[in-house]
From TrEMBL:
It is a multi-pass membrane protein. InterPro entries: Peptidase_A24A_bac, Prepilin_IV_endopep_pep, Prepilin_pept_A24_N, Prepilin_peptidase/N-MTase. It is found in: Cell inner membrane; Cell membrane. GO terms for molecular function: aspartic-type endopeptidase activity; methyltransferase activity. One of its GO terms (biological process) is methylation. Pfam families: A24_N_bact, Peptidase_A24. It comes from Piscinibacter gummiphilus. It comes from the Bacteria. This is Prepilin leader peptidase/N-methyltransferase. Keywords: Cell inner membrane, Cell membrane, Hydrolase, Membrane, Methyltransferase, Multifunctional enzyme, Protease, S-adenosyl-L-methionine, Transferase, Transmembrane, Transmembrane helix. It catalyses: Typically cleaves a -Gly-|-Phe- bond to release an N-terminal, basic peptide of 5-8 residues from type IV prepilin, and then N-methylates the new N-terminal amino group, the methyl donor being S-adenosyl-L-methionine.
């Protein structure tokens, strides 16, 4: 299976420009990872209260832009020059300018990771506008991985648009042939759905969430049906290594499981960078 080839053009998709944009998008993704679960939870509480006809205390409404960012320990309002990706973290030496409480290293790390991924996309897809499309795909995966890691949720309002965007991009002739995309979505959903039910019937436990099916469906829509098995294999291997590592470091609390979504997302990105030719070669399918 070959991905569609588009004529080259150098429309603002050099690795440097995309890396710089990635740095800023990474900063935004930090906000999404932190706030989207809060906003969703508030909505669910409100819906449940209305359905049950009871009064509940709801937290302050949260959107991506409101309230303005504050230090979680002292409430110091973060000024624009304290919010420049990576630079501000280094200038503040990783501490709040008011109360000197440490700022999580995760913020600059997500910014740097997003910058590297965006630059990598420019390198992988050439200096072509379609690279921006793949950068968008990458950004949504970073957000999903972060949210799943923190909360074991893979929100529908990220997985489903990602799935549709993959199908539409393919229908417009920008990525892979449409049949590969459609069957990729179907195979992605049904494969994990089947594993889920077999596991549940055998053990009575739920091994993964429905969000995982939707995420793999989205990955299938972007990468094609032939990539589903390699993605799942890759995610299982990386997930097992990290899970065992965390058990040895005993940072895995009793009864808490390692979410599968970050590994699916990570494995999907590996397969995107490798491309179908190389992946099929790894599996000896050529
Ligand atoms: Zn502070």
């Amino acid at each position: 299976m070959e991905w569609l080839q588009l004529p080259p053009s150098d429309l603002l998709a050099s690795p440097w420009i995309m890396g710089l944009v990635g740095l800023c998008i990474g900063s935004f993704l930090n906000v999404v990872v932190h706030r989207m679960p809060l906003a969703l939870e508030r909505g669910w509480k409100q819906d449940s209260a209305e359905l049950l006809g009871i009064e509940v205390d709801l937290p302050e409404p949260v959107t991506l832009s409101r309230p303005a960012s504050r230090c979680p320990s002292c409430g110091h309002a973060i000024r624009w020059y304290e919010n420049i990706p990576v630079v501000s973290y280094l200038a503040l030496r990783g501490r709040c300018s008011a109360c000197k409480t440490g700022i999580s290293l995760r913020y600059p790390l997500i910014e740097i990771a997003t910058a590297l991924l965006f630059a990598g996309v420019a390198w992988r897809f050439g200096e072509h506008p379609v690279a921006w499309l793949w950068a968008g795909f990458t950004a949504v995966l970073v957000a999903l991985a972060g949210i799943d890691w923190d909360t074991t949720l893979l929100p529908d309002n990220l997985t489903l648009p990602l799935l549709w965007a993959g199908l539409v991009a393919s229908a417009l002739g920008w990525t892979l042939p449409l049949s590969q995309s459609v069957w990729g979505a179907v195979a992605g959903y049904l494969s994990l759905w089947s594993v889920y039910w077999v596991f549940k019937l055998l053990t009575g436990k739920e091994g993964m969430g429905h969000g995982d099916f939707k995420l793999l469906a989205a990955l299938g829509a972007w990468l094609g049906a032939t990539m589903i098995l390699p993605i799942v294999l890759g995610a299982s291997v990386i997930g097992a290594i990290v899970g065992i590592g965390m058990k040895i470091a005993s940072s895995l609390r009793e009864g808490r499981y390692v979410p599968f979504g970050p590994f699916l997302a990570g494995s999907g990105l590996v397969m995107m960078f490798a491309g179908p030719e190389r992946v099929m070669g790894w599996l000896g399918w050529r």
